[in-house]
From TrEMBL:
Residues 2-116 form the CENP-V/GFA domain. It comes from the Bacteria. This is GFA family protein. The keyword Acyltransferase does not apply. One of its GO terms (molecular function) is metal ion binding. Belongs to the Gfa family. It comes from Sphingomonas lycopersici. Keywords: Lyase, Metal-binding, Zinc.
């Protein structure tokens, strides 16, 4: 079980089971929402339990997905495809060590020009 929350603590959640290796997304939407790139782990929606959703807000960022964030503090928490039973959970929102490491970088063709990716992990131009 992995617990997490937003910055102000208004939204708390747990993820049951092991966390798959996270991906780091460098697409322009993730960069604009997070201020850089977005590291997340994708889990079945049934593995995610959100304890209190009163501050959870959703923004439909495309015809394919929506992004969940805290309406109180603005923390980026989730990326959810509209027609799938998986959800991506922000790695930075977990409270304790996760026991996983980054597995790959995605949408690197869209990455910012102010940094390089030099960790030797697999890179995909798109998803």
């Amino acid at each position: 079980m992995h617990a997490g929350s937003c910055l102000c603590g208004a939204i708390t959640f747990t993820v049951a089971g092991d966390l798959p290796p996270p991906a780091v997304c460098h697409c322009s939407q993730c960069r604009k929402q997070s201020g850089h790139c977005f590291a997340s782990t994708e889990v079945p929606t049934s593995a995610l339990t959100i304890a209190d959703e009163h501050s959870l807000a959703w923004y439909q960022s495309s015809e394919k997905a929506r992004r969940g964030f805290c309406a109180s503090c603005g923390s980026t928490l989730f990326w959810a495809p509209l027609h799938d039973d998986k959800i991506a959970v922000a790695m930075g929102a977990f409270d304790k060590p996760t026991g996983t490491t980054i597995g790959m970088h995605i949408y690197v063709a869209d990455k910012g020009d102010y940094y390089d990716i030099t960790d030797g992990l697999p890179q995909r131009a798109a998803s």
